[in-house]
Write a structure and sequence with these properties.
heterodimer, A: 14 strands, B: alpha+beta, Ubiquitin-like (UB roll)
Chain lengths: ~300, ~160
């Protein structure tokens, strides 16, 4: 239950971290908040030759509102995000999801970038990133590139980042008008891993029909799982209870692929998905109907 | 194979220490073995039980999920720093004593260090808020009921003390 030996660096500038990555390749691991990596190292599931601690890179801890979008440095802690009123104003879905992430002791250390890069299918932030259409900025010694959240998550604990790249920034775009959001999850105890969770986004046309929607699930497959057919069934419809119920049934019965575990069988996870989807869509629709402007601009 | 030692300087309970540490040394083990501050308990060592909770620059963190080398130039508060002296209990400790908020006491330091900043932020918490605040700390003796009562009493005495 103690980490195997490793060399340790705590660079003061990003370039140093990138050059360590370039030099050591897969033997190097980046340490962000450490709330997933250190347990894995304590279990010796992960044994890096070199640990590059990013916690001295204060340049990567920031929250900025830029032209309606929200730009967040990868090393910003979950607690900082949770307490910043600009997050609730710009990306209400993110603000709703943050308190569900583990416990305050974990959120005090855990970072946005660390959770996204870890790509745990049971985690909240990857689901929020996909539902909110976030884009990620990756940097390496060769330069930088932008990756959509959809392309970023490639499977269980796997992302699109190459060994020489690090995630430096996440940008959440502004919501379109008449859009509502909701994040819902169920766990056995506050802060535990959720048995099921869903992020919903609904946009309405001026006439009030559903013009666009997103449903993204956690703990429902090998990454953030989108329910495209359920969305297709909803778009173009008047978003009343039967329409919402129909979409929730498609998502829960046909689209998600939960694995089941000792806490929740597959059948129970599907049941939770259906109930949570109905709740999430209901809340998102109500929000979207409540304001002609994107929520948070009030 | 052992990696090169790093020299760290930090304050623990307002006292400054300088020590060489191997990078893989966990903060929890550093506090217990290098500084002899055995009030911080080690339970699961993967961030589930909360027994090793300490304050890092005033906010609660799991000391088993941090390396000692990461505490360089930071301020740590452990349960030993809670009371004003060896004979005096902090109101939070006194309330745990009075309300039987512990039996074996293994989890207690983690509960106390989680609750101190919580009560500073929520001087008059509801029962739901208390239960959510302690959801990251496991206790196998009390069934939590007496801990919740202790937190209510501590909130009252801490508020009275300030008023």
């Amino acid at each position: 239950m103690k980490p195997a030996p490793f060399e340790y660096q705590a660079p003061a500038v990003i370039e140093e971290a990138l050059s360590a990555l370039a030099e050591h390749g897969e033997g190097a691991k980046l340490l962000a908040g450490g709330q997933s990596l250190i347990p894995a190292m304590n279990f010796r599931v992960v044994q890096p030759a070199l640990l590059v601690d990013l916690n001295r890179l204060d340049d990567l801890r920031y929250i900025r509102q830029e032209g309606g979008s929200l730009s967040v440095g990868a090393m910003t802690t979950q607690r900082q995000l949770e307490r910043d009123p600009r997050v609730a104003a710009s990306v209400p879905l993110l603000a709703q999801a943050l308190p569900y992430i583990a416990h305050p002791q974990i959120r005090n250390r855990g970072t946005l970038g660390g959770s996204l890069v870890h790509a745990d299918p049971a985690a909240e932030l990857p689901v929020v990133a996909v539902a909110a259409r976030a884009t990620m900025k990756a940097r390496s010694q060769e330069g930088e590139r932008w990756i959509t959240a959809e392309a970023f998550f490639q499977g269980m604990f796997v992302t699109d980042l190459s060994p020489g790249e690090m995630l430096v920034e996440v940008v959440f775009p502004p919501a379109s008008p008449r859009t509502g959001w909701s994040f819902q999850e169920v766990s056995r105890r506050r802060g535990d891993y959720a048995m099921m969770g869903v992020a919903a986004m609904v946009s309405l046309s001026e006439g009030g029909d559903c013009s666009a929607a997103r449903l993204v699930y956690l703990n429902a497959g090998d990454g953030p799982v989108q329910a495209a057919e359920a969305v297709q069934a909803l778009v173009g419809q008047w978003p009343d209870l039967p329409a919402i119920r129909g979409a929730a049934r498609i998502a829960a019965e046909q689209e998600i692929d939960p694995l089941g575990n000792v806490h929740a069988s597959v059948a129970y996870q599907r049941h939770l998905a259906r109930v949570l989807t109905e709740r999430a869509l209901g809340e998102a629709v109500k929000q979207a109907q409540g304001s002609g402007e994107p929520r948070g601009s009030e | 194979m052992s990696a090169a030692a790093h020299s760290i300087r930090l304050t623990v309970n307002e006292r400054t220490y300088e020590r060489p540490v191997e990078p893989r040394l966990l903060l929890s083990d550093f506090l217990r073995h290098d500084l002899g501050l055995t009030g911080t308990h080690v339970g699961c060592e993967h961030g589930v039980c909360g027994a090793c909770t300490v304050l890092l620059d005033g906010v609660p963190v799991r000391s088993c999920l941090m390396l000692a080398v990461q505490a360089h130039e930071h301020a740590v508060t452990t349960v030993e720093g809670l009371a004003s002296g060896p004979e005096a209990l902090h109101p939070l400790q006194q309330a745990f004593w009075e309300k039987h908020g512990l039996q074996c006491g293994f989890c207690t330091p983690g509960f106390l260090m989680t609750l101190l900043p919580f009560l500073q932020e929520h001087p008059n918490p509801s029962e739901t808020e208390i239960r959510e605040a302690i959801s990251g700390n496991l206790c196998r003796c009390t069934g939590y009921q007496h801990i919740v009562q202790a937190v209510k009493l501590a909130a009252e005495t801490m508020q009275a003390g300030q008023g």
